[in-house]
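Question (not urgent): is this output format expected?
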Amino acid sequence: MLKSLKSAILGDPHRDFTEGPISRAVILLAIPMVLEMTMESLFAVVDVFWVAHLGSDAVATVGFTESLLTLVYVVALGLSIATTAMVELVTSPKQRAFGRAKADTLPAYCRACDVRFACNGECPKNRFRHTPDGEPGLNYLCAGYKSFFTHIDGPMRLMAGLVRNGRYADEIRGIFAGAGRNDPCPCGSGRKAKTCHGG
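Got this back:
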């Protein structure tokens, strides 16, 4: 415990909060905040001691402002510590290796997929199927993702075109509503509306 206290106070620029027990990481992150709040409370006591010579109104004013400052300090320090932990996580060698592996282990079937931009193979833990060519590493949700992103491709392009022309994306509802069931689907698939986005 004393070792952790000393480490938290002195700091270590090479410490990786993603390594080791979570309980120790929480303690190391919390100690600076606790010490800061202790010093802030001591400052408030000294402040009130000197301001007390000016009268009760001055003491009341200091007490009120110190309460507000304490809330500000707590929020600011909490966000600062959370940001530190997130930066440690994102920039850690382990996280970078995970990101590289996610891209490097994609099978050729995924790399040639038209909707790869939308899923990028999804999470590696779900890649336990084989591709039609027999290559391992295919996400077990691949068929669903491919069907979904292919189906919405036309409408998404229509909405993007509306926005680029200064119009509202929700105007697409009127475009599809105006198409008859046997008319070509506005998405551009070449199919009838009733068997595409009007079904």
